[in-house]
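Support case: uric acid complex. Customer-provided input:
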Amino acid sequence: MSSLPMGPNRYGKSGIRLAVVDRSRPQHDFTDLEVEVRLQGDFDAAHVDGDNSGVLPTDTMRGTCFALARDGIDSVVGYGVRLVDRFLTASPGVDRALVTLTQHPWEAVVVDGAPHAHTFRPAAGGRPTWTVTRDRGEQATVTGGILGARVLKTTGSAFSGFLRDEYTTLPETRDRVMATTVDARWGTTGPDADHTGMAIDVPATILAAFAGHDASESVQHTLHVMGTAVLDAHPDVTWIRFLLPNEHHILSDLSAYGLDNPGVVYLVADRPYGVIEGVVAREGVTPEVPWDG
Ligand SMILES: O=c1[nH]c(=O)c2[nH]c(=O)[nH]c2[nH]1
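Agent response - structure generated as follows:
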């Protein structure tokens, strides 16, 4: 058997679930994270010769995530920077360390009109996510994001004037329900930006633009409006990428029952669903587009 050289590769751990309690104030903070680690570098010997001497076990990556949370996490991105720095130090063969941290947000339960000090429930509005990447000898880069932010509007959305062929049966509409679950990721100016603030403010800008865009001709049209609004309002965001499922709500045909349906009853079709993806970037900025290649 010929020994072919090793192609591109990386390795790491996914699904590292950990939670950190900050008890320093009467109102506790609860940070619930899922961490992914990926290390990239010279691992030819491991693949070609079975030589593990340069392989930091993925179990050690899990242990590192827990150990580096021992004294609390200043901010999620600060913790991510400490993690990538540690992996570059601990594993000399690594050229690039990457961690993705996705938060499962909890909010204090309100009791008698006040937030309870140590009782929480899942918060709505999606899961904030950050990726910290560091190449050896370079500054860390940070992307932020929001996953699973579900929104719907009952008017202000149209889809008409589209290309038709012999398989097109979709009726045109000037007024429909538009629903999606926003997954967005954005590039930033670097680790020193206010990533915790942006995790709240960028989704707020996205939702305000979704709500305000009542002249929407399509999900694509609204994607561009939302992206433009984010770049206008947040100087530390350099590009933003969206993945927007079009969660169809189809006006139900009630004519068999002798009834009209003036935009009251909808069939909620969970599949198939449209998928609208796109990036809006500042001039001169090359965004990360993972579906290229
Ligand atoms: O906003 C939309 N964009 C499309 O590309 C599309 N295609 C479709 O069937 N419905 C819609 N809606």
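The first strand starts at residue 11 and ends at 22.

Case will auto-close in a few days if no follow-up is received.
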